[in-house]
Specification:
The structure is a single chain. The chain is an alpha+beta fold. The chain has a single domain (about 1-80), classed as TATA-Binding Protein, CATH 3.30.310. The protein has helices at about 15-25, 55-80, and strands spanning about 1-10, 30-40, 45-50. The protein has a three-stranded antiparallel sheet with strand order 1-3-2, covered by helices on one side. Strand 2 (about 30-40) and strand 3 (about 45-50) form a beta hairpin. The model has no long low-confidence stretch (mean pLDDT about 90).
């Protein structure tokens, strides 16, 4: 099993978490497992486990894009 963990510090981590949490429930497939949670009020944590490197890479690509889109939307809402 392969695992990658990302910690994203952001003042609006709770809002990012709320935007991303529903995606965790979507089926990633039989080769991966993904969790997202908060550490304190300002750190969003993403954990991806996969049975092989290609599955890990693909799942990370998807989740990091989701985090980026959530971040960009939060910036747009905050700063117009």
């Amino acid at each position: 099993m392969h695992e990658a963990i990302f910690r994203v510090e952001h003042p609006h981590a709770r809002l990012l978490f709320k935007a991303l949490k529903p995606e965790e429930k979507d089926e990633n497939g039989p080769r991966t497992a993904t969790r997202v949670w908060l550490e304190g009020e300002s750190v969003l944590v993403l954990s991806v486990q996969a049975s092989d490197i290609p599955a890990l890479r693909a799942t990370l690509n998807m989740w990091l894009r989701l985090i980026n889109v959530a971040y960009e939307m939060q910036e747009l809402v905050t700063h117009g």
